[in-house]
Automatic annotation (TrEMBL), chain A:
Organism from which the protein derives: Hellea balneolensis
Family: Belongs to the ETF alpha-subunit/FixB family.
CDD domains, per the entry: ETF_alpha
GO biological process, one term: fatty acid beta-oxidation using acyl-CoA dehydrogenase
Physiological role: The electron transfer flavoprotein serves as a specific electron acceptor for other dehydrogenases. It transfers the electrons to the main respiratory chain via ETF-ubiquinone oxidoreductase (ETF dehydrogenase).
PANTHER family, per the entry: ELECTRON TRANSFER FLAVOPROTEIN ALPHA (PTHR43153), ELECTRON TRANSFER FLAVOPROTEIN SUBUNIT ALPHA, MITOCHONDRIAL (PTHR43153:SF1)
Binding-site residues for FAD, renumbered to this chain: 200, 225-226, 239-243, 256-263, 277
Subunit structure: Heterodimer of an alpha and a beta subunit.
PROSITE patterns to which the protein is assigned, alphabetical: ETF_ALPHA
Source taxon at top rank: Bacteria
Cofactor(s) required for function per UniProt: FAD
Protein name (database record): Electron transfer flavoprotein subunit alpha
Cofactor, how bound (note): Binds 1 FAD per dimer.
UniProtKB/TrEMBL annotation, chain B:
Keyword Transport: yes
Top-level taxon in the UniProt lineage: Bacteria
Keyword Transport in annotation: yes
Identification of the protein by name: Electron transfer flavoprotein subunit beta
Record organism: Hellea balneolensis
Assembly, per entry: Heterodimer of an alpha and a beta subunit.
Keywords (A to Z) from UniProt: Electron transport, Transport
Any single biological process term in GO: carboxylic acid catabolic process
Amino acid sequence: MAILVVAEHDNESLKDATHKTVTAAKEIGGDIDILVAGKGVKDVAAQAAKIDGVRKVIVADHVSLKRQLAEAMQEVIMPLMDGYDAILAPDTTTGKNFMPRIAALLDVMQISSISGVESPDTFVRPIYAGNAMATVKSSDAKKVITVRPTAFKAAGEGGSASIETIADPGPVKSEFVSEELSKSDRPELTAAKIVISGGRGMGSGENFAIIEKVADMLGAAVGASRTAVDAGFVPNDYQVGQTGKVVAPELYIAVGISGAIQHLAGMKDSKVIVAINKDEDAPIFQVADYGLVADLFKAVPELEQALRDAGYS
Amino acid sequence: MKILVPIKRVLDFNVKVRVKSDESGVDLANVKMSMNPFDEISVEQAVRMQEAGLASETIAVSIGPDKAQETIRTALAMGIDRGIHVKTDAEVEPLAVAKILKKIVEDENPDLVILGKQAIDDDSNQTGQMLAALLGWPQGTFANAIEKDGDSLIVGREVDGGIQTIKIALPAIVTTDLRLNEPRYASLPNIMKAKRKPIDAKSPDDYGVDLTPRLSTVKVSEPPTRSAGIKVESAAELVAKLKEEGVI
């Protein structure tokens, strides 16, 4: 079996989601190649070549691939698919965007957001916002799979794969106009070891400053519930949940979040969950390892002080 | 411009799912069903574009059992002009849905198809992209803003790092994200009016699409459950516990 893994990157560095997708590919078994499609991706390709267990890195370097738009990715991937039995990409907004196009053109059903590999044709995936786990067996000749990165460990380094470059894709019907990316010095939400999220209880965007302080002391990422995003407290890409990001950090601290089904879908695989909420009947307490029933405007500054007392700054 | 809006009837988003004890699936007997929330946003978007004079006709299509007709009526009550109901009791995978929709697109010649980004039951997030691929059309997925610019659309997309704006040539596929708009409630007069709007009854056979599933469900099981932990009395106690756990 030959498996193609599509790398997640920002043209400068390879994202951890790629390493985790390689682990899923290893569980399926076979020769694993990585496709790095982008613009100016020499460093990314070099990083991909170091992942343990990778046979070959294929580089497609062209301006049309800079943002990995679906139509351009399709042009690069489809000619390669004769040589592969499976294609895997992380279940990020990039992978979710182009992978179903590949599946449709290969006339196969995509298996979305797998959280487990049972055998080379049988996979586990969450459905109904993670409230049920479906084990599905694919009868398709080629497998098109997106991988939930939080469900797999990152593959290690130490490999020395060869790197080859392929030809440019042709022109496509969509063009990139602009982007507004949230600037942050904090760790990336999906890869952070600690995540602190605020909900509607935060009351305003300014009030997020109190959890940001704690986040910075712990080196944590800041997330949010949908209601906090809808209210405009923080940008959309902070959203944790069924329709936002799925995280599984060592520690997840939910502040002023009631714990709707859709939010739990994005964080309930965290190792330790802490809830700070003044409503002791909030559903979040049913999944929290540690609950503090208190007004967050009092509790969060106290938490900050307690961390300072414990040696954090 | 003509707009086609595919919609799906799903378990209501507020209902707590129950997995059947024989692990054959989730229990959908006697539970509340509604229009998929993302599809409500698609319907709202199509109706707004028509109200803004950008669309001449809007069509809702749903593939599913008899009751999917109720979902189409809801769309008609929100302002969609007419419906197409492709009746089947089979569970239809995104690939087969995309194939049926492709045939409907070929019959109806819409300039734009607006779909929800994912259905909250199978959580696949595939159909729009698959339809775009089968038609050879460009796609604007996870849209939180849509603007018409001549023969193109400017689409703001919710991506992992923030917002990305792309320009796609019409005809095109757009899939909607939650923040695109706030769907309206259908008023009683509009619900009454919707009863007189036409719904075309079709079957998958009319489109010659093979619905045989490519994925067979081996089992559906409960996810690992978490039990409630302990309540702490103070922030200091919380920090002490987290240190004990070794997570800070």
